């Protein structure tokens, strides 16, 4: 059974640009959550989608947005990048919002 | 405020030296508690789910237990390959998303 896939794996951008990250869940998983991980802050929750609806949103500015498609694939977008957005972005998928979550390998974003 | 804490922050063990990691939570209406292992630069790897006080789960050298306010991850005779950050997370019966603790960074020296 294929695991969670995230693309791209690595990304280098400059301040002010925007970026789109993609997450393909394990087959049958309908819940997708996104997290930002930095050395000083640990895992910070961004948002959660289930059946194309955003169920929860973390405490991040509106520059961070996401969506989920009918096939459960999800994308997150960060506009007007700042240096502080450099982080490992992880998505996690599950059968439902309160089931075990399985993480992808992450996308390492570096903002210069 | 719902909170998940983990202790110790970092732990260094000699190979074969057993120990325990702690995860304490203050959420109400616990639906489940989850343990993950994370290697540097990689996504967390799912280990266990615990649903009710008294429940135990085992996998190789790891055993997770749950009480009403905390969970322990016991590591028996660890090996260097067990070195990683161990994260716990809780989810409630209602409302919000997973709440992750800050993790315990485990180093097992040969």
Provide the residue-averaged pLDDT of chain B: 93
User: Structural class, from secondary structure content of chain A?
Assistant: mainly beta
Spans of chain A with pLDDT under 50 lasting ≥5 residues?
none
Radius of gyration of chain A: 13 Å
Radius of gyration of chain B: 13 Å
- How would you characterize the largest beta sheet of chain B? 6 strands, mixed
> Count of helical segments of chain A?
0
Q: Strand share of the residues of chain A? A: over 45%
* Shape type of chain B: globular
Which percent range fits the helix content of chain B?
A: under 10%
The total beta strand count of chain B reads 11
Based on secondary structure, the structural category of chain B is: mainly beta
Number of helices of chain B: 0
- Tell the overall outline of chain A: globular
What pattern of helices and strands is seen along the backbone of chain B?
A: EEEEEEEEEEE
The level of helicity of chain A is under 10%
Instruction: Kindly report the average pLDDT value of chain A.
Output: 94
Q: Termini separation of chain B (Å)?
A: 41 Å
> Which stretches of chain B are low in confidence, meaning pLDDT under 50 for 5 or more residues running?
none
Termini separation of chain A comes to 37 Å
């Amino acid at each position: 059974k294929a695991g969670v896939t995230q693309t791209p794996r690595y990304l280098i951008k400059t301040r002010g640009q925007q970026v789109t990250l993609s997450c393909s869940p394990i087959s049958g998983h309908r819940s997708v959550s996104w997290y930002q991980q930095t050395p000083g802050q640990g895992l910070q929750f961004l948002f959660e989608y289930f059946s194309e609806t955003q169920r929860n949103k973390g405490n991040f500015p509106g520059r961070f947005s996401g969506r989920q498609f009918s096939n459960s694939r999800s994308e997150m977008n960060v506009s007007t990048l700042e240096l502080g957005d450099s982080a490992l972005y992880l998505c996690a998928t599950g059968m439902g919002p309160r089931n075990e979550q399985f993480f992808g390998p992450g996308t390492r974003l570096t903002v210069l | 405020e719902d909170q998940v804490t983990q202790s110790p922050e970092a732990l260094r063990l000699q190979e074969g030296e057993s120990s325990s990691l702690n995860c304490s939570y203050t959420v109400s209406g616990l639906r489940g508690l989850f343990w993950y292992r994370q290697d540097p630069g990689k996504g967390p790897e799912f280990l266990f789910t615990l649903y009710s006080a008294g429940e135990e789960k085992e996998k190789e050298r790891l055993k997770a237990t749950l009480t009403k306010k905390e969970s322990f991850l016991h590591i028996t005779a660890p090996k260097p390959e067990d070195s990683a950050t161990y994260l716990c997370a809780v989810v409630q019966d209602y409302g919000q998303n997973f709440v992750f603790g800050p993790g315990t960074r485990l180093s097992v020296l040969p």
